[in-house]
Structure formats: C-alpha cells, structure tokens
Design goal:
Elements: H1 2-26, H2 31-42, E1 49-53, H3 59-66, E2 71-76, H4 79-88, E3 96-98, E4 111-117, H5 126-136, E5 137-148, H6 154-176, H7 181-195, H8 198-204, E6 208-215, E7 220-226
Length: 227
C-alpha cells in the first residue's frame, strides 16, 4: 500500500506546475462544468463546512467559494499541489494540510461536506478512506465524489479509450515533461472502473441515501452519499 501512496505522491508532485493547464486542455474545458454540477447537486451553501480531500491546486474549493462556502479546508498528499493552492487562493492560507485520506487528523463530526474530485482512484485503501470520511462528517453530512469512468456505449467507449490511451499520454507527457505520469492516469481509470464499486464501498462505511449521476456521455460519475 505504501508503494502506491509514494508513487502517487511522486507523480503529482512532478506534474503539479502544469496540472491546471493540462486539466483544462485535455478535458476541453469541460472540467469546470463537472465541478460546478457536482457542487450544485450537493447543495453547498454559506452554512457548509467543507473539507476538500485530494484537493490538488484547489479548483473544487475555489468553485465552492462561489456557492457561498466560507469555511473551506484543503487536504492533499502532494506538497507541490498544496503550494500552488496557497498561491492561487489567499483566503485558504493556513487551511491546507498535507495528509492522506485514509488517516485524516480531523475531529469526528466536524465538517458538513467532504469533496474529492478525481482522487479516489489514487487512494491506497478506498474503504479506509471512506471510513475516515464517515467519521469526520456531521450527521446528515455529505460526501461528494467526482470520478472518471468508462462509458457504456461501445462506440463512444472505443473513441474514449483511443483518446485516453493514445493522445492524452503524448500531449500530457510533452507538456508536463513526465510521460509516465500521463500513462498512469488513463490506465488507473480503466482498472478502477473494472474493479471498484463506489456506492457499495460507501454503504460499507455506513453511508445511506447514495445517489449517482453520470455526466458527459457517462465519462464522469458524481456520487453523493449522506451520513
């Protein structure tokens, strides 16, 4: 497990300074919509206390602030990602913590919402991570997960796999300078989609009222689970 943890940290530390640019470029800008839609479905507001896990450079937290959320905390295992988050958002200063989802130094029942965007597949123990989420959330609190998935339509799935396997690694590798990182990312999506049932794992951790939404021809899933 520690091998995966350290591998993922190394990858994201390596690509951090090109991460935002590549996210927007490789998703054709649709990543903005995915975050907005997920947060709108969650129902964030000015009373929310948000813990943004695997926060990266903070795009989810920045979007959440536009929904009126003032109490926002970021958590990520990549120091370089957190450094960029601090540079992008003055209001987050001192509210970012370097940590893994599986062992969060967060008080029980201290937040109303947890978000994790495109980060769950990088957890070294997803079940343990969700257990940690459940403990940190207040009663009626929500965990919102945004994650890639393989589309079900055969034709679109073929196009998607070609883009993910052939184009994304080349473009991402050239711009970031780390081709291996952009081979890992698409490979992790396919493996994750084949093996992991997120609603089932959330249910195992005690969550109920689990909702699942598919976006953009089914390439992205949003799962919202209530405590």
């Amino acid at each position: 497990m520690s091998d995966k943890k350290n591998k993922v940290k190394k990858i994201f530390d390596s690509i951090a300074f090109k991460y935002d640019f590549l996210n927007h470029l490789l998703s054709f800008g649709v990543d903005h919509y995915w975050r907005y839609k997920a947060l709108k479905l969650t129902g964030l507001n000015s009373n929310s206390i948000l813990l943004d896990v695997a926060c990266g450079t903070g795009d989810v937290s920045i979007a959440a602030k536009k929904f009126g959320v003032e109490k926002i905390f970021g958590a990520d295992f990549s120091f370089n990602m957190l450094t960029l988050f601090n540079k992008k958002s003055e209001w987050i200063k001192g509210k970012c913590v370097q940590m893994v989802a599986e062992k969060m130094p967060v008080k029980n029942e201290s937040v109303t919402n947890i978000t994790v965007a495109f980060g769950v597949r990088n957890f070294y123990d997803i079940q343990q991570g969700f257990n940690s989420f459940y403990s940190a959330l207040k009663k009626n609190g929500k965990a919102t997960i945004i994650e890639f998935r393989m589309p079900s339509n055969f034709f679109f799935k073929s196009l998607y796999k070609f883009y993910f396997k052939k184009i994304l690694p080349v473009v991402g590798g050239i711009i970031s300078g780390d081709r291996e990182a952009y081979k890992y990312l698409p490979n992790s999506v396919e493996e994750f989609d084949e093996k992991i049932n997120l609603p089932e794992l959330l249910k195992n951790s005690g969550f109920d009222k689990i909702q699942k939404f598919n976006l953009t021809f089914g390439i992205v899933q949003v799962i919202i689970a209530a405590k």
